[in-house]
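Bit of a strange request maybe. I'm writing a small parser for structure token strings and I need a real example to test against, not something I typed by hand. Could someone generate the tokens for this chain?
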Amino acid sequence: MLKKLMVTGLLLVSVVMAESKGSSSRVGVGVDDSNFLYATFDLSKNLRFEPAIHFSTTEATPNNETEQMNYKLRVFALGNMDKNKQFYYGATFEDYDTENQNGLTIVSTSYFTATAGLEYSLSKQVTISGEAGLALFGDASGIQSSLILKYYFE
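Reply from user aminoacidic:
Good idea to test on real output. This should exercise your parser:
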């Protein structure tokens, strides 16, 4: 539980600090089709850093609840196709931890994914992205895909 609070707090503080400093970088927040919450930092016109987090709770039996905390750290190179489209490619580190109601870790999985995507601007501040990734190293393998809706602060 403490780990969840620390990661969530870090994510929120990062967004607020980056936005309040008025830096020249682009800052946004988003959500994907798996309910991951993203904080997007375009550090330059060619580089993006993007942490993401997801929480879920399931109740297997009346007194047996499990909590899952998932997070991603993503780094991308950016390229513009035209005024409304930009492509990106890079690496994603993903970590999934599942704990029971006593705080004991049941499952812990980590892996790296090579990811590429296309982001389309619906307006100056709202974008939608489609991406695909191939898990390369670690405890998972296979192809992943997602749709992400983002809002950028301007």
